[in-house]
Design goal:
By secondary structure, the chain is an alpha+beta fold. 46% of the residues lie in helices and 23% in strands. The protein contains 30 helices and 26 strands. The strands form 5 sheets. The chain has an 8-stranded mixed beta barrel, surrounded by 5 helices. A 5-stranded antiparallel sheet has the order 2-1-5-4-3, with helices on both faces. The protein is elongated and about 180 Å long. The N and C termini lie far apart (149 Å).
């Protein structure tokens, strides 16, 4: 095989030229291969020089031939250098074999690197000896085939390195002529990585096919560049209802809702997939029969390595159940479980939008009505939770019926309801709704065979106050509602700024009260209780005072109600009990056992109902060493009457402990004579309002006379409060009233001054 050897610089060309390029062993061989005849240069002797001109001319011709040969030789040497460089630098293995013996005569560096043998270990060996064929027989068979055909090629030939590592190679071998002898060139390319990649690709495709066909819950199908279906899986039939023949060839817009097709949604999704490579979507889709389902899926753009669009792959699932569950969850998160009304969070979000609208439109107005049922706790306690819940549901329905469709009724929890009146024209629109609600609640509710009556107190806040936050609007409506309750319940009040100022003042008072407890800012003043028979002090009533750091001395009338509402009255009450017992014990030691001073301490209704009250009192007595027979606890008749059964049991516990009970402010509250004789109280205290008019108004004198007679008949003693004049004292002594208390004897004083009253 002869040809002019080109100046091949690229190993790619070397691979494709194969064994056809000249293997340069010598200049002479190279000349033969490029088609230049070999001519030996002859030396001219002196005898030849004597020949004639003809011989000289012949010599000149020979000289020209030699010159030509030298030029060709130089060109061939340059070509040989280029080929040798390519042979040495090629990134494919190259072996040169003797065509007669099949033994290796030359090897390039890459082949040395590939198999791990040294160059000397290659030379003189057959192909099977270097791990190229599995045995001698296979190597010999390939060798014979090569001799017969002059060219062989093996795609997946196994090859084993010197270290025993196996790889796959592509083997190409040619036979060519060199110096009129046959030479074999073998080119070996390592295709292990490529084969592994191809195997991984095949396995991946197989897994994908199994996955696509095995996932029955997912519809997987391919589209061409126009959006028409080209292939599918069986999940398509389950999700969309189409068979293979029906589905393939259709435009994928057949699975979109008609309104989405009209707006071009299918095309938009394909364009998005092209722009982004992939797009995820959730929407209502259409099945073959026309039914709708909530589908979630992905559209992926398929492109060739040239970035040319080949089509689209779509994976979709029917997520209708999940969608419905999410909607139920969202509804439940925004609505009250009992009544089905919007809850606080939903209402506040609605109110935010109303506030925003009122900012944009000056002629827009809304109102918020805050409702709290009156005496709901009594219904709950007496009839039980089931009846109470039924009542709340019935009221919710009545409230919905009392407003327009564009309004909102919400339940905040317990017995609290809130109404949003949208786009009202005047304040009267809000009050008209409030009055309608009052009228609806006049009639009784028939629940479980019980006629249940209730009413509601309503606070109204209007958007004219320029709210920025829903919380502020609700706060003001709540404030107005409490004002309605304070004014008699079953009514409504419209919020004004003065209510807010009072609410802020109350909040500041509550804050100061908490700090007062922490900082021990409370004091005890003492007012003596005097025996009207002996005119001697029999004891004191402990009266609470607050030494406010900024306001000075604050009397109970200004803070007791706030202390009751916040529950701070309980720790305050425990403190005053302990302090009064401690101080009285000191006085008792000063005056001696012959003067058993008593101390009276008031119990609030909240404190009286504490389950551990008796135990706490007992611990105080033990801690101070105070005799329980000298402790008098004062409770009002309203506390006793509102909790008759519990109060009776509690009073008996105190009697067992040795502590006496006084009924304070008798005659001012709700009294029941049928219950009074059953309450084991020891003393009645007549309220000062009756004592102050004794001798001036006959009816008041008769009331006092009746109370004293009643107490004596029930074997109780009497203390008259508010004694301020000599005439009042005389009248009380005439009625045989045992004790008196008031400014006539002494104003309430601090502990030091009280001590002076008993020591002088």
């Amino acid at each position: 095989m002869y040809f002019d050897a080109p100046a091949i610089e690229d190993e790619y060309l070397l691979w494709h030229y194969g064994a056809g390029f000249c293997y340069p062993n010598s200049v002479e061989k190279g000349l033969a291969n490029v088609g230049i005849e070999y001519v030996s240069a002859k030396m001219i002797s002196p005898r030849q020089a004597a020949w004639g001109g003809k011989e000289a001319a012949k010599m000149n011709d020979e000289t020209n031939i030699v010159t030509t040969r030298r030029g060709a030789q130089e060109e061939l040497q340059s070509s040989e250098t280029r080929y040798r460089r390519l042979f040495e630098k090629a990134r494919d293995g190259i072996l040169i074999l003797n065509a007669d013996t099949g033994k290796i005569t030359d090897v390039n560096p890459f082949m040395v690197e590939l198999l791990g043998y040294s160059r000397d270990e290659f030379l003189g060996k057959g192909l099977s000896e270097i791990g190229l064929f599995k045995d001698k027989e296979a190597s010999q068979a390939a060798f014979l085939e090569l001799q017969e055909k002059g060219y062989v090629r093996y795609e997946d030939l196994p090859l084993e390195t010197k270290e025993g590592l196996r790889c796959e190679v592509e083997f190409v071998s040619n036979v060519y002529q060199e110096d009129r002898q046959q030479v074999i060139q073998c080119n070996i390319r390592d295709i292990t990585v490529r084969k592994r990649a191809e195997k991984a690709q095949r396995e991946s495709e197989e897994r994908f096919h199994l996955l696509v066909e095995g996932v029955k819950d997912y519809a997987v199908f391919m589209l061409d560049t126009e959006g028409r279906v080209t292939s599918w899986n069986t999940g398509v039939e389950r999700v969309f209802g189409y068979g293979e023949v029906e589905f393939i060839g259709q435009h994928f817009s057949c699975i979109f809702a008609p309104e989405d097709v009209e707006t071009g949604e299918p095309e938009k999704e394909l364009l998005t997939a092209i722009a982004q490579g992939q797009t995820d979507n959730e929407r209502w889709h259409i099945r073959k029969g026309g039914t709708r389902f909530w589908g979630t899926g992905t559209i992926r753009c398929l492109q060739a390595t040239t970035r040319r669009l080949q089509g689209f792959a779509i994976v979709m699932r029917d997520n209708t159940e999940l969608r419905m569950a999410e909607e139920r969850t969202a509804h439940d998160a925004a609505h009250d479980n009992l009544t089905g009304l919007p809850n606080r969070a939903f209402f506040i979000d609605h109110l935010k939008r109303g506030i925003a609208r009122s900012k944009r439109h000056t002629d827009y107005m809304f109102a918020v009505l805050f409702l709290d049922l009156d005496r709901f706790k009594n219904i709950n306690d007496s009839l039980g939770h089931v009846i109470a819940d039924q009542l709340l549901v019935e009221i919710a329905r009545k409230l919905e019926a009392a407003v327009r469709p564009e309004d909102m009724v919400a339940r905040f929890g317990g017995d609290e309801f809130v109404i949003f009146l949208d786009d009202i024209k005047a304040v009267s629109d809000a009050t008209r709704v409030a009055n309608r609600i009052h009228e609806e609640l006049v009639s009784p509710f028939n629940l479980g065979g019980n006629e249940v009556f209730t009413s509601t107190s309503i606070g109204i806040a209007l958007s004219v106050h320029g709210y920025d936050r829903p919380e502020d609007c609700l706060r003001d409506a709540d404030t107005a509602m409490y004002r309605a309750k304070a004014h008699g319940k079953a009514r409504h009040e419209i919020f004004d700024r003065s209510m807010h100022d009072r609410a802020v003042a109350l909040l500041e008072l509550e804050t100061d009260l908490r700090r007062a407890v922490e900082r021990s800012e409370f004091l005890v003043h003492y007012q003596p209780i005097v025996s009207l028979e002996t005119s001697r002090i029999s004891g004191f009533e402990a009266l609470l005072r607050w030494q406010h750091p900024a306001r000075g001395l604050v009397f109970p009338a200004e803070f007791i109600s706030a202390a009751e509402e916040t529950g701070l009255i309980v720790p305050i009450g425990h403190w005053i009990l302990g302090e009064a017992c401690r101080q009285t014990r000191i006085w008792q030691e000063q005056v001696g056992a012959d003067w058993p001073l008593a101390i009276s301490v008031n119990l609030s209704s909240k404190q009286f109902l504490q389950p551990d009250l008796v135990e706490r009192v007992n611990q105080t007595l033990l801690k101070t060493g105070f005799d329980p027979r000298n402790l008098k606890l004062e409770i009002t008749e309203s506390v006793v009457m509102e909790n008759a059964g519990e109060a009776t049991a509690r009073i008996r516990q105190f009697r067992d402990l040795g502590v006496e009970l006084f009924m304070d402010d008798f005659g001012t509250g709700y009294s029941s004579l049928s219950y009074l004789h059953r309450f084991p109280v020891d003393t009645l205290k007549i309220d000062r309002s009756f004592i102050s008019w004794m001798g001036e108004r006959e009816e008041d004198s008769e009331i006092v006379r009746t109370i004293v007679a009643l107490a004596h008949n029930l074997h109780m003693e009497v203390i008259a409060e508010g004694v301020e004049t000599e005439d009042q004292l005389s009248n009380l002594r005439a009625l045989r009233c045992e004790y008196g208390q008031g400014y006539y004897f002494s104003r309430p004083v601090d502990a030091e001054s009280a001590g002076q009253l008993i020591t002088h």
